[in-house]
Amino acid sequence: MPIRLVFFALLAGGLLAGCGNGSMTSDFGSTSIANGGIRVKHGVVTLHVGDAPNAVISADGELRIDGKAVATTPAQQVLLQRYASSAMAVREHGIATGKAGAAVAGAAIRGIAASIASGDADQIDKHVDAKAKQVDTEANKICMDIANIKAAQNALATDLPAFRPYAGIIHDDQSTNCNKGDPAH
Questions:
Q1: What is the tally of structural domains in the chain?
Q2: Percent helix, strand, coil in the chain (nearest 5)?
Q3: Integer Cα distance of 63 and 77 in angstroms
Q4: Which of 46, 93, 105, 149 could make an S-S bridge to 15, C-beta 3.0–4.6 Å?
Q5: How far apart are CA 21 and CA 11, in angstroms?
Q6: Is residue 10 part of a domain?
């Protein structure tokens, strides 16, 4: 078997293995962002920081800290909605990225089988490269979502004193370095 085919088989296996987190009890309705600092579950965004109680942002921009509603202005509520919708978008775009990654793995596996049958390994490269571009497109959407969370986070830290303890969840390097290595950005 040519080395290229072995590479694609390993790539496909790695992508398929990466679809789970190794836990059979994984919570598929939940997404964790920024090392657990932001958790999205059932349309609610929960913020976790070490020295403050949890903050919960609903899709409509309601903020609760330690279970108590926080009074907000209409402008603050819009920022909270933007924060929540961007965090929820990370989840949706993450799912889309995973599906695109699985498509790459499937294409590689199908290509390996076809290559073995026909002896034409070049077709695998072309087909897998096209599928891999879909992964890049979806992953770039996550980068934009993180940047949008960071922008809303910064504005909320300035405009809403109760939000300040949560203002460091997304760091500058997480939003600015997201596309690092991507020549399109």
A1: 1
A2: 60, 15, 25
A3: 8
A4: 105
A5: 17
A6: yes
